[in-house]
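Request from the bench team (R.T.):
"We need a structural guess for the complex before ordering more zinc ion. Sequence and SMILES attached. Just send the tokens back."

Command: build protein-zinc ion structure.
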Amino acid sequence: MKVHFLGTAAFEGIPSMFCRCDLCQKAKQLGGKNIRTRTSVMIDDELKVDFPPDTYLHMLRDQLDLETIRDLVLTHSHSDHLYAEDLLARYPGYARSSEHKIGVYGNDLSILKCREVLGTGKDKFDLRRVVPFRRTELQTASIVPLPAYHDQKETCLIYYIEKNGKAILYGHDSGWFPDETWEWLRDKKLDLAILECTSGWLDASTHMNIESTVRTKERFVEWNMLQLGGQVVVTHFSHNAHLLHEDLLAIFGPHEITVAYDGMVLQI
Ligand SMILES: [Zn+2]
Ligand SMILES: [Zn+2]
Ligand SMILES: [Zn+2]
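Reply to R.T.: structure attached below.
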């Protein structure tokens, strides 16, 4: 299975648009893996998680054909995860797109945001609300949405995804997972877990930082939740952490946690 990391930054990207901090200046000079756009992952070119405003850039940079997408899973309605206006570009007049409907799955607020722009979705999208702990069959995979601790104004979701015999935890934006999410996960065997490390060494509650991502991996190991060869990946970095890609590699290397970068492809 191909897991393609399209973007790996938090809301503001790295460098952040209006920022003159040291990290943003260095990222601009060094380029490469220090440049991070807003988060999204594509699985097997057909299942996409989140739809950030950088999707257009991702298409150009990685030469994507977005018409291969069958299902779009949304974690929450924050604008770095859902820029619904760009979904309109699939309609006649903006695109000669194919006949199939893309299934779009998310919490109430994410689906409402899509409806405000797309109406019912007409012939191009099938908009579906999902609820925590209820398994939902997509066109390309089976998912179970799980509650996160991220923004009390909406039910932010992380996803347990089963596809072609593999299990992926798409774990952000999350904060430390709520107890009921841990309880649901504890007997699962993951081939891949994708976690956010938004805050670096800073304190964090509605996001994760280095300490909580490492603790999460330790719990996966302790609870025997990783499949043989199972990987843990960190992503969704904020410039406020002031960490370059090489700094992150030095921090996470000893813990055998993979640091994502824009364009990274994993085969699991
Ligand atoms: Zn975010
Ligand atoms: Zn900055
Ligand atoms: Zn968020």
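Two things stood out. The radius of gyration is 18 Å. The chain has six helices and 14 strands.
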